[in-house]
Amino acid sequence: VYKRQALGGALVATIQGLLVLVLAPLVGVPYNPLMILILTVEIFLLAFTLCGMGLVIAARIQQMQTMMGVMQMILLPLSFLSGALYPIANLPQWLYTLVLLNPVTYAVQAVRTTVFHFIDVPPLAEAQLNPPITWFGWEVPMAVELGLVVVVGAALLALSVNQFNKADEP
User: Fold this and answer.
1) Residues 6 or more apart whose Cβ sits within 8 Å of residue 85
2) pTM of the model
3) Could you point out which of 17, 60, 108, 134 has its C-alpha 20 to 30 Å from the C-alpha of 140?
4) How far apart are CA 69 and CA 31, in angstroms?
5) pLDDT above 90 covers what percent of the chain?
6) Secondary structure of the chain in the HEC alphabet?
7) Rounded to whole angstroms, how far apart are CA atoms 53 and 160?
């Protein structure tokens, strides 16, 4: 039942994310069916991972009123440390390390790379606005980024199922 909750929550969040894409032409991003399809998958993977995280937290919380506050305390730093709001280039090493530990970073990077693939911008602008994520000088490919998001999401879902099953035991 928890897997269905994660999938259902991810589906709702994906639909909400796609509603934002309606505004894409207002900022010069043309509609392209392939781009929309790829973005849908990437958004779903991020939403699934965040739903898994929410289920892990929900398994530990006793009062429903506490859940929203705790989730906001976790999601806000993840958002700030993902590159979604602020560029991650030229960060101090300690902060860049935190960015690399954040699974949201990899989903945001994949989404941004997909959009830049379908729009026409000068290479210098793309290099500045979409710098690659690197591990010790190795440029992380998009497949690895998305694979990492999937692995973290699956691990969080498994952890939440385990926690809920322990809570259900007499």
Assistant:
1) 79
2) 0.90
3) 17
4) 36
5) 68
6) CHHHHHHHHHHHHHHHHHHHHCCHHHHCCCCCHHHHHHHHHHHHHHHHHHHHHHHHHHHHCCCHHHHHHHHHHHHHHHHHCCCCCCCCCCCCHHHHHHHHHCHHHHHHHHHHHHHHHHCCCCHHHHHHHCCCCEECCEECCHHHHHHHHHHHHHHHHHHHHHHHHHHHCC
7) 8
